[in-house]
Amino acid sequence: MPILRLKEIRDLSSEDRVARLEDFRTELVRLKTMIGAGGTIENTARVRQLRKVIAKILTIEHEEKLEANRPKPKPKKPEAKKNERKKTETKKTETKKVETEKTETKKRRKKKETKEETE
After folding, report:
1. Domain spanning 6-69 has what CATH number?
2. Domain extents for the chain?
3. What pLDDT is recorded for position 72?
């Protein structure tokens, strides 16, 4: 059985992947028993290839499972433009300045009044 490429694995349906997975696992077990019994196999690299393909199939299955369970992302709120932010910030700072000026003038008046009363 030929080794599958990643694109080919992704194109397969889930049922086909499971069927191919079983085929590859049985072939791997067969090759391992032949090696364990002291026999030789034609292509020793085939064991490694089979292990890799099995891992790829399992990985893709797991990815699709996670993708199905993943919640959809919430749409982002539109952000205020930078100019609008600056305008509101400058308004706030201006009102603070005006308030501090008013309180300072009140303090000055009180000082003057207290000085006049003491004289």
Report:
1. 1.10.287.310
2. 6-69
3. 75
Confidence (pLDDT) at 83: 58
Residue 29 to residue 35: CA distance in whole angstroms = 10
pTM of the shown model: 0.57
The answer to whether the CB of 1 falls within 8 A of the CB of 24 is yes
Q: What pLDDT sits at residue 28? A: 95
Q: Which two tokens stand for residue 18?
A: 């499971």
Low-confidence residues in the chain, pLDDT < 50: none
Contact in structure between 24 and 57 (CB atoms under 8 Å): yes
For 25, counting Cβ atoms within 10 Å of its Cβ (0-12 exposed, 13-18 middle, 19+ buried), the class is middle
Please, what is the end-to-end C-alpha distance for the chain in angstroms?
112
Of 50, 49, 60, 61, nearest to 26 by C-alpha is 50
How many CB atoms neighbour CB 53 within 10 A? 22
pLDDT value at residue 81: 62
